[in-house]
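Researcher: Next entry in the queue.
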Amino acid sequence: MSKPLMAKATAVWLVDNTTISFKQIADFVGMHELEIQGIADGDVAAGVKGFDPIANNQLTQDDIDKAEKDPLHKLKLKFNAAAVGEEKRRGPRYTPLSKRQDRPNAILWLVKFHPELADAQIAKLVGTTKPTIQTIRERTHWNIANMQPIDPVALGLCKQTELDAAVQKAAAKKAKEGQPMDDDERRKLLSTEQSLESDAEPRMPTAIEGLETFSLGGDDTAGEEQKEKEYDAETFFNLPDDDGDDDEDDDKA
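Model: Structure for this entry, 253 residues:
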């Protein structure tokens, strides 16, 4: 499916001017549903001016009205010769000047939470260079003390689908090479949709952690020891025999 011109700006306009669901907008502009949610929350595409798809001959008002009434209706892009080939990208990813200062934070996030990604993959995701990635991996970057790891999707440097695809590709390559994966790495193989649909794991309250094997009855060994210590009630009234010394002392007195 062809994408509209200025897809992100079109998504901003649709979020601000229609009641179409995030899923419908995401399918139309070729973005992830969470990115559309981020646009609505103001975390993604901040400062981007909306691009009217009706005025620019990409959508019709009738199509938008149908989508607002029916959540299952899919928006259809009107044919525009100028939009042909728009999704093709040549050369390195272009990063706007306003976001270039955020790239080191995004690289730090990728290095920290996805160490399986190769430098070439990180460079493609956020539009940076391998020497910059290497300095951040080795923590020799000139501004490393002031850097904070931030999700590149939240910064608008890449799409969630692109990040998921890169992570899965890196994990598949690692598995092909025969390197074992731990539980954390296996969880990273889940796409965003799969992780959101999965049930939350039940967690034991902190106050009772470590008491899973506690039993009020105790074990069998303790029970046997307790039985051995039981006494007959008459034994408490059997005083030791005496030689009558006390009686003799009383007579003398």
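Model: The mean pLDDT is 76.
Researcher: Noted, moving on.
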